[in-house]
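Changelog note: in this version the structure field was regenerated for every chain. One regenerated record is shown below for reference.
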Amino acid sequence: MLAKGGLVYNFGTKKADPENLIAERKANFDYFVGAELGLFFIKDMHKNSEYYLSGGYMLESKSIFGELGIRTFLNTLYSRR
């Protein structure tokens, strides 16, 4: 488990829609805190992969987010002899 925190810039804008309970959103910086769980696999010395689940809370916009994904790492320094 990995604790995360950082700064994100939101590019999009959205007009307020009180009927559907949607607040106005302007382009600005937003801070987040969260956690990540990952399962790392070592296939060989050249190619490794990781399955991860990440989630967190955006402090300014008061919203939660989640990610599910796969990362692939290539070891370019490894040379086969």
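Spot check on this record: The beta strands are 2-10, 28-42, 47-58, 63-74. The first strand starts at residue 2 and ends at 10.
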